[in-house]
Specification:
The protein is an alpha+beta fold. The protein folds into 3 domains: about 260 residues, Thrombin, subunit H; about 90 residues, Pdz3 Domain (Roll), CATH 2.30.42.10; about 100 residues, Roll (Pdz3 Domain). It has 13 helices and 28 strands. The strands form 5 sheets. Strands 22, 23, 24, 25, 26, 27 and 28 form a 7-stranded antiparallel β-sheet that branches. Strands 1-3-4-7-6-5 form a 6-stranded antiparallel barrel. A 6-stranded antiparallel β-barrel has the order 8-9-10-13-12-11.
């Protein structure tokens, strides 16, 4: 999926303080926690209100009224109940990974494990530690993919002190979930997965894990937010919590008051490498789905249609004459993909999949991924102002997604602020474009112009104006001129940048009014 071209700029300030403590970053991480919680407050008599009472809300209190004081919950019974099912995980990293991971945590990078670095790092493997939890009596354990992905061997330490060799059943890098198996010679205590869809901000949660090698550490806090997209991947649905989690917490469980897991500690935002009260957990509903597939098949199968989509900005909506900034705008359709065979086109706006409303590219990715490969999915598509139904036979997500992505006279489009040049064979090679790509290369962008404000830059290749493909600078300039004269104000340019297609909305009215 291709993000909005301005999205990286929007995340810059967060990344500067370390938001990219993200699960899919590829290096070995160490831990975090996140949560949900159904902790009902305890009243003055020591009883617990029922669910209806604890979730009831009211408007502003009348003047002179006071809320009844409540004691903070006591988590000791909960901890005693669930602690036997929480494990510490030790991995011996492969030599190449061990050398790379000996560097300490860097600002803006994912947390490493709590590493035990020997005096002679090249002579012995580095050990890294994380956390996990048992989900059935037969020894099935869930943890983060980044905890075990570079491991040459994995061992698990149970709460009773026993250390067991673990087998990696399977891993899913896209959601940072891994499943392990141990043989304890008997039944093991385990934890049930709860329903993360019921999680609400403000609920109490308890995180448990192995921070800095300190096994069995418990912290508590509340759910800060749900369904967080932190830029880790197309399936981001993180639970954000303020329960302290640190290096080594990765893969540990997040509990509700009833002792069920509603998340797995995965990432933190931190400028220092320590907890600042912003942590993220993979929701239990996702863990349940992914872990069951890994247990059954050793891998995860997802639906795939082969499109690159982006969010719809106000300018793009104006240019494409959309009534609202909702849906997933197709910036590219991969050749010979299920989407291409079904007739989907760049410029289409996906509004629903099998009746489920699509508000943004993440919704599209999640809904398509949940369709069984081989099944037909019904897409509601807005094309050229008209709604239509398109049936797509969903394929299977490849293991590795590969991005897929003329002559004419030099043209300049003054109103937009672009200087365009032909896309010669030499330029195609320089920009690493597939043979046969047609369009116009952005040679220059006038300072202060609508094009500069929209984020266009030299090296961008314009392959379409609104939904009309263009083959050279003359066609591009003519299409832009026609669009601005006939409909005025805004145009949507389909651009290839760094091999990825993306729509860029250019608002000429905004620039004129500002100037």
């Amino acid at each position: 999926m291709t993000p909005d071209p301005k999205a990286p700029q929007a995340r810059t300030s967060l990344r500067k303080i370390g938001l990219t403590a993200v699960l899919l970053a590829g290096t070995a991480l160490g831990g975090y926690a996140a949560g949900h919680a159904s902790f009902a407050a305890v009243d003055a008599q020591g009883t617990t209100p029922n669910a209806a009472q604890s979730t009831q809300t009211t408007s502003v209190n009348p003047p002179g009224t006071q809320l009844a004081p409540h004691a903070l919950p006591d988590f000791s019974a909960l901890v005693s109940q669930v602690k036997p099912a929480v494990v510490s995980i030790t991995t011996k990293l492969k030599p190449t990974a061990a050398v790379d991971d000996q560097v300490g945590p860097m600002q803006g990078m994912p947390f490493p494990f709590n590493q035990m670095v020997p005096q002679q790092p090249k002579a012995r493997a580095v050990e890294a530690r994380g956390s996990g939890f048992i989900i059935d009596a037969n020894g099935t354990i869930v943890t983060n993919n980044h905890v075990v992905k570079d491991a040459s061997s994995v061992s698990v330490t149970l709460d009773d002190g026993r250390q067991l060799d673990a087998k990696v059943v399977g891993r899913d890098p896209r959601t940072d979930i891994a499943v392990l198996k141990v043989d304890a010679g008997g039944k093991l205590p385990f934890i049930q997965l709860g329903n993360s869809r019921d999680v609400k901000p403000g609920e109490w949660v308890v995180a448990m894990g192995n921070p800095f090698g300190l096994g069995g550490t418990v912290t508590a806090g509340i759910v800060s937010a749900v369904s967080r997209d932190i830029g880790a991947g197309p399936y981001d649905q993180f639970i954000q919590i303020d329960a302290p989690i640190n290096q080594g917490n990765s893969g540990g469980p997040l509990f509700t008051q009833d002792g069920k897991v509603i998340g797995m500690n995965t990432a933190i935002l931190s400028p220092s490498g320590g907890s600042v009260g912003i942590g993220f957990a993979v929701p239990s509903d996702m863990i349940r789905t992914i872990a069951s597939q890994i247990e059954k098949d050793g891998h995860v199968t997802r639906g795939f249609v082969g499109v690159e989509a982006q969010s719809i900005t106000a300018t793009t909506a104006k240019a494409l004459h959309l009534s609202e900034n909702s849906g997933a705008l197709l910036a590219g359709v991969q050749p010979d993909s299920p989407a291409a065979k079904a007739g989907l086109q760049p410029g289409d706006v996906i509004q629903s999949v099998n009746g489920t409303t699509i508000k943004n590219p993440r919704d599209l990715a999640l809904n398509v991924a949940n369709v069984k490969p081989g099944d037909e999915a019904q897409f509601t598509v807005l094309r050229d102002g008209k709604t239509q139904q398109v049936s797509v036979k969903v394929g299977e997500m490849p293991n590795e997604r590969l991005a897929s992505a003329g002559s004419g006279q030099h043209e300049r489009h003054g109103q937009v602020g672009l200087a365009l040049a032909p896309l010669s064979p030499e330029m195609r090679n320089q920009l690493d474009l597939p043979d046969g790509t047609k369009g116009a290369v952005v040679q220059g962008v006038r300072p202060g112009s609508p094009a500069e404000q929209a984020g266009l830059q030299p090296g961008d290749v314009i392959v379409g104006v609104n939904t009309k493909p263009v083959s050279n600078p003359a066609e591009a300039a003519a299409a832009m001129r026609h669009s601005l004269e006939g409909k005025g104000g805004a145009i949507a340019l389909r651009v290839i940048r760094d091999g990825q297609p993306v729509f860029v909305g250019v608002n000429t009215d905004q620039a004129q009014n500002a100037g």
